[in-house]
């Protein structure tokens, strides 16, 4: 504690990095680009996992586990994927270290233990999974396959940032196989909706559902459905994607089924994933200059209780009362931490729970004991109020709901204020440069224009929103005709 | 279905491999030594994870996540560990694949993308974790650290078997740091007890708690606490270990704390883990020639219901009744699958649920409808009985408890019948060779004797049991004095 965070207005990026480390969420490790997720950060990720996993199962998916390694040749089988992903990846070439004969105490790679075929640490698992599905699918009776995996993946990123872009990250990847095109498209859309629901209902993070332009699509996908969020610095964050893969992987790995009519058909497929990047999105959607702000539904500690006392007798009397209230809160499924450490002062503890984003903080002192009251502080607005102990449980329960709702409304308002429709390129540049956020503009549909706009403004097409209506217009850059606005933004 | 399993008496090892594949638990992958854990197998593993995770948290542990990769130099820092583990491991040497200029469609490792320092895919995480803890520990106030991680690890095993020994496997690894020797020893013992409780109460798998002899200890441990189970072929399975690491890792990574008295002290530590190997133990403890037998507490499907009908009307009437009963079972937390697929006959379904170890199978036919009955079959004893529908829920609930208990008793009896005390080496060889199981024998405490016994009989010291009393005796091999019997067995 003690040393304050850099403020967002001073240096947003520095604020983020400091917050992640000081709030005990994650830190850099001895391995370039790989992070250590600390217990408090991991507890938030576990809560996300739990809800997502429930949602996946409720929509008919099962979990499984596929190997960490992908033989190099499987990437060759799926060329598009190889071009898109396999370039920067961790390659295992040997299977033994041995003592260096020329240098005592040192280890070297044993040159005699070279693998016949190199193994790639999975950057994503389409290749290994479709190579497996090949053995599982013969008939239409074997379909659909609706599998999810929770796993670590590695992409050799050059510039990394905690949670947002790391060489190793944790994610889930769904991989489904279907008999028909229509069913696979419906699955892709369903999972985009599941992600959007999770972002809204648990993260209190507004997202825009859309599809990617061809150049922003996952290599190997016919369509990429995305959810795009907006961070407080006006940059967009791609928070989850769901890919309609057509028959691309089925063709690359020769996965066919016999239809009811006895015909051999290639299988249709999807894949979809969200990652620990969501942690970055969660942090940057709600937090402030005092530290993390967590929506109650994803807070490992929802209520922190700090006693304020001078004598042991006072502490004992406070403890008795606190345990009664804490018990009632817990019986309602509310997580409570009574912080009776004698190694830290109350003020220090207040600052710590602010830094860590605990939604509700309660203080109880000697005067509260006399008056039958306690002080409730909410993290989102920093408001405090004195409340009768007898009403505390009910008030806190309501307050947690209010905070969840307030965070959503606040984030939604910010996001909506940062979608700007523009009709010429001067205005486009002006908004991207100074206001930030999403720019809704007409685009002529060509990759060339997309590239040029990116070159000039660093803004990319985040998505073609599903709920944008068709309208006649002209591309802000070329003046060529366009039928729909798309959303541009600078992005993480 | 259809093709029966090889019987255990014909070829135990073949029986096991067939069962794992046919019951849809796991299969080999395109990557040597790495398995695919299929949804049904993974669902069992998830149930194990859930209970273990709860037990870890109830004993004050938190989850976190550390990097997959360990820089080679960190293994050098911990020499003992390097000798014990780092020899056979996956080594990442490069970070890029590129198109082969001489061979279209092929990928090669980019020679310009060689890592400055090779990375080892973690075979266990002591090195990377203690390198991290160094930054977390300054004062006694920072202790204890009680962290667990659920992760994948890789050990380059030459001979692999599904679940029992695979190059990549899933596990949890606890890594704790303490201010005192005594606290660290208590932690090691506590986690051994947690593992033993889990084995008994959920897996219905009896285990013997003991400590390892020096030669069987984890490299880097001062003491290894183990739980040892017995499989139906008379071979032992090490099911979980908890290591008291002394100050070995703290010294290797220079992790010191300032005590209350202001002195600099090295930290004391433990590590402990169980893995997907437990799946192998679960399978081999209870299963029979018809397939898997699962204890109800770890069964993804506890009750399977199969309708037997000729007409659509019958199916409809059965469905109505089944849904009523299934609803009542689910409200008691019992997992139920109503298998109304019209693509398979009832007999086929019966065989499938036997193969997959579903504890209770219910059949309901037209005559049952008339009589208000249903047929209940239990997987452990294969007994069937006709039961009034009105009593079904209560009977099933009781039956699930009975099956859990019966599996425990059966396994316990088998295990106890296979602990043989012997007092001379002829008898020792005889029992190891013909009867199998554990042999309780005096041993002179030397590694030399241990090695010779292993050379002659293939039996190793599984553990020095905690509950064996001291008694005067002489080593079965050398005749030298001994104060305690130890347990020998052939082992997985």
From TrEMBL, chains A, B:
InterPro entries for this protein: aa-tRNA-synt_IIb, aa-tRNA-synth_II, aa-tRNA-synth_II/BPL/LPL, Anticodon-bd, Anticodon-bd_dom_sf, Pro-tRNA-ligase_IIa_arc-type, Pro-tRNA_ligase_II_C, Pro-tRNA_synth_II
Keywords recorded for this protein, A-Z: Aminoacyl-tRNA synthetase, ATP-binding, Coiled coil, Cytoplasm, Ligase, Nucleotide-binding, Protein biosynthesis
Stated family: Belongs to the class-II aminoacyl-tRNA synthetase family. ProS type 3 subfamily.
SMART domains per record: ProRS-C_1 (SM00946)
GO cellular component annotations of the record: aminoacyl-tRNA synthetase multienzyme complex; cytoplasm
Name under which the protein is recorded: Proline--tRNA ligase
SUPFAM superfamilies the record matches: C-terminal domain of ProRS (SSF64586), Class II aaRS ABD-related (SSF52954), Class II aaRS and biotin synthetases (SSF55681)
Biological-process GO terms, alphabetical: prolyl-tRNA aminoacylation
Annotated PROSITE patterns: AA_TRNA_LIGASE_II
Top-level taxon: Bacteria
Coiled coil: 379-406
EC number: 6.1.1.15
Function as written in the Swiss-Prot or TrEMBL entry: Catalyzes the attachment of proline to tRNA(Pro) in a two-step reaction: proline is first activated by ATP to form Pro-AMP and then transferred to the acceptor end of tRNA(Pro).
PANTHER family: BIFUNCTIONAL GLUTAMATE_PROLINE--TRNA LIGASE, PROLYL-TRNA SYNTHETASE
Subcellular location field: Cytoplasm
Annotated organism of origin: Wenyingzhuangia fucanilytica
Binding partners and assembly: Homodimer.
Domain Aminoacyl-transfer RNA synthetases class-II family profile: 27-295
Catalysed reactions listed for this entry: tRNA(Pro) + L-proline + ATP = L-prolyl-tRNA(Pro) + AMP + diphosphate
Single GO MF annotation: ATP binding
Lineage: Bacteria, Pseudomonadati, Bacteroidota, Flavobacteriia, Flavobacteriales
Main location: cytoplasm
Domains as described in the record: Consists of three domains: the N-terminal catalytic domain, the anticodon-binding domain and the C-terminal extension.
A Pfam family this chain is assigned to: HGTP_anticodon
